[in-house]
């Protein structure tokens, strides 16, 4: 993906930061930019820090020599999660993983693979049944709203091992000669 840094166009990352009331610091740009360019991957704190460090040294991503210490990084991730730009999940090993907020989370039922940690919409796999799930979820939200609950959001997720990972694990081993 080429970076189109034409001066006429506002930077989409800057726009997102502003729209969510965050300061457009070099560190914030770096972290959010990283998540947005890896939308299918979720990272632990340590994985993200390692990824950013290698990206910085390889490409000079941190323009102006942005150095991200651990505390700054953790704070940034917290802020980005609070404003809904990142999704935080606790995986099967009880480790927090962060990911750019996937579109799939907002409405459709989606699937979280516990092996590759990919997040994918389930509409294709479930065909018409996905619409039933979504309708049920919306009904539940409306019922709660009618009772006075506010600021509701819903994360309709199915967890398990995706077909790709299950297939990879089930590949029959070559019979030893
Ligand atoms: Zn998987």
Please provide a brief summary of the model.
This protein has 8 helices and 5 strands; from the N terminus they run ααααββαββααβα. The protein has helices at residues 12-19, 26-37, 45-59, 70-82, 103-106, 123-126, 128-146, 163-170, and strands at residues 86-90, 96-100, 110-113, 119-121, 157-160.
Detailed description of the structure:
This protein is of the alpha+beta class and 177 residues long. Helix content is 47%, strand content 12%. It has eight helices and five strands; from the N terminus they run ααααββαββααβα. It has helices spanning 12-19, 26-37, 45-59, 70-82, 103-106, 123-126, 128-146, 163-170; strands at 86-90, 96-100, 110-113, 119-121, 157-160. The chain has a three-stranded mixed beta sheet with strand order 4-3-5. Strands 1-2 form a two-stranded antiparallel sheet. A hairpin with a 5-residue loop joins β3 (110-113) and β4 (119-121). The longest helix has 19 residues, at 128-146. The mean pLDDT is 80. Bound molecules: zinc ion. Zinc ion is lined by residues 113, 115-116, 118, 161-162, 164-165.
